[in-house]
Amino acid sequence: MERKKGISANVIVLGVVSFLNDVASEMVYPIVPIFLMSVLGAPALVVGFVEGLADSISKILMAFSGVFSDRSQKRKPYVVWGYSFATFSHLVMSLAGTWPLVMFARVINRTGKGVRTSARDALITESSDKVSRGRNFGFHRTMDSLGAVVGPLLSILVLKWLGGNYRMLFFAAFFPALLGVLMFVFFVKERKKKPLGLTGLRFEWSKANQSFKIFLLISFIFTLGNSSDVFMILRAQSLGLSLGLTIFTYVLFNSIYALLSLPAGIMADKIGARKVLFIGFIMFAIVYLGFGFINSSVWIWLLFPIYGIYMALTDGVSKAYISKLIPHEISASAFGIYQTLMGIGTFLASTLAGALWTFSGVRTPFYFGGVMALIAAFLFLILTKRVRVAQPRA
């Protein structure tokens, strides 16, 4: 597998695969909360529980799949199975007539993400050299977020063509996802590596330095206020935006995310991921506090783009930051541990947001999220002044 400064061939293919998978997923995702509440009559508390449960299962599985991937030093099988689960979930969603079946479909979809993500991130790490990991992760996030732009736009066209038939839209999402699986199987290459020869599920904490552990703590605090994006979609609708305009604001967010992901990765390589992540935390606080304070839908058109800036500054960059804190032989496990903690935090955040929305009003979840982001940003600024970079294995 060729390594070079810049973006590797493997990462380019992985980017295309992620694009196709995200086209499929984002044809479905922004519609799910509307489908649950408008068609199936579910309350916001159920919406938060469904998304929180699905995301938490996804991220908890990342730890297990990451450990197994590191033990075997194999990445590709986990990614294949992960994308296959996600593809199958669209068929299940097309049959959903009650919210528990929607939850089942979402759990299958997020299970796929949980199985594949740590191994895929490790594959990106192994496919790029250390000085260009920011741009490699940034390119991958760019392609992923481009899919998140195309997917919602396709959903508008498909819904119009199908006369607003949500279930047929979910069925249509199966096909780009299937194409992505086939591309990965035939075009992504993986070098054969010797298994580590370790057993069990224990993460090798002795190889993880203090800087990594501090980042885990701060990220968990931040995530407690970072509820599912479906609440921003529902907030936009609560301010009077139509379904079409709500989806367009979501497309605008993903467009900014796509445009800035690669530049953010390059900036992280040049000035350091720590500075970029701190700015991202502040952007998130601005967005969530804004969603809490606004009284007019006009502000939605500003806040969603700022949210795109936050995502670009943190998503791929956080992985590049972690990759410099841990040895490559435990990279999948480290990504998995990180995602597991984020999963627990996401479940708590989304369930709490649903409860706050239902019992305390639509503004309260965003006030809480904004305050938690400011606390995390302050801790990040204070506690990560001296970052210990992982040393290569002898």
From TrEMBL:
The keyword Metal-binding does not apply. Gene3D superfamilies: MFS general substrate transporter like domains. One of its GO terms (molecular function) is transmembrane transporter activity. The chain crosses the membrane at residues 31-50, 78-102, 143-162, 168-188, 214-234, 240-264, 276-294, 300-322, 334-359, 365-383. Keywords: Membrane, Transmembrane, Transmembrane helix. InterPro entries: MFS (IPR011701), MFS_dom (IPR020846), MFS_trans_sf (IPR036259). CDD domains: MFS_MJ1317_like. Residues 10-388 form the Major facilitator superfamily (MFS) profile domain. This is Major facilitator superfamily. It comes from Candidatus Collierbacteria bacterium GW2011_GWB2_44_22.
